[in-house]
Amino acid sequence: MARRGTPSRNAGGRKRTDPAREPVAAPVDGGLAELVPDRERPRAWTLLLDGAPQSHVDLDDPTYLSFEYQRRLGHVIDLAAPPGRPLHAVHLGGGAFTLARYLAATRPRSTQQVVEVDAPLVHLVRTALPLDPQARIRVRATDARAGLGKIPDGWADLVVADVFSGARTPAHLTSAEFLTEVRRVLKPGGQYTANLADGPPLAHLRGQIATAASLFPELALAADPTVWRGRRFGNAVLVASDLPIAVAELTRRVASDPHPGRVEHGRALADFTGGATAVTDEAARPSPAPPPGTFG
């Protein structure tokens, strides 16, 4: 499922939606899922799980990314290839399919596979927030690593990982063995991007960077400055490839976000890992749980 995050406020002065539009709620494998209408955008909804925001979708404008981390993943999608060029993309973690909808809108004729383990959540989202029937998006209700294993070698231009269970990334999606499967699926020059979450002392984040560095020669990481300094729990977006990443443009875009972030790469990012070593399946642990009140 998508990572819990904080939506930014809409300052566009859009027409308010019908106040009679009511939330939709249903039990799913991960808890109680709710679709809450966005009162500022006529056909937009926020997906919550057990009361915490997971993702936001605007059916009228799928290019609108409300959550900070999703906006940064959107920058990666934008820079993964020349504008408008169709991509083969794999999304590990579905949520409300926000990023798959974004990619379909910005890169028509793309072919996408979404892997989401929570089948009841998939059913709820597909029923209440239907995908564009013209979009080439296939959704598989299965475990992310198992679903990745069914994708042919060298198929994907882009693999997006945004998988959380109980607000934590499962251990088997944090290891070098998992990233070996990601590399198998990627085309030469393809990119892997992941939503990571951690807080002080950032041991998990450092380990994930070291793990990616053991498989990919090119890395960049975007995060809020307070997360970089280890002052609070938050999201970081990792990008990895076997070819150079458009770091300068990614840096510019992240710095221009409503909540500006910072991008590190190269020597500075290697130094940030502080000697952390790659994580193996045997030693893998889930990402840390957020402190109480993080999403309150």
Structure report:
The chain is α/β, with parallel strands linked by helices and 296 residues long. It contains nine helices and twelve strands. The protein has helices spanning 68-79, 98-106, 119-128, 144-148, 176-185, 203-213, 225-228, 247-255, 266-272, and strands spanning 24-28, 31-37, 44-49, 52-58, 88-92, 111-115, 136-140, 156-161, 186-198, 218-223, 234-241, 262-265. The strands form two sheets. It has an eight-stranded mixed beta sheet, sandwiched between helices. Strands 1-2-3-4 form a four-stranded antiparallel beta sheet, covered by helices on one side. Helix 1 (68-79) runs parallel beside helix 2 and helix 1 (68-79) packs antiparallel against helix 8.
Protein topology:
Blueprint: E1 24-28, E2 31-37, E3 44-49, E4 52-58, H1 68-79, E5 88-92, H2 98-106, E6 111-115, H3 119-128, E7 136-140, H4 144-148, E8 156-161, H5 176-185, E9 186-198, H6 203-213, E10 218-223, H7 225-228, E11 234-241, H8 247-255, E12 262-265, H9 266-272
Parallel strand pairs: 5-6, 5-8, 6-7, 8-9
Antiparallel strand pairs: 1-2, 2-3, 3-4, 9-11, 10-11, 10-12
Give the structure's gist in a few sentences.
The protein is α/β, with parallel strands linked by helices. 26% of the residues lie in helices and 26% in strands.
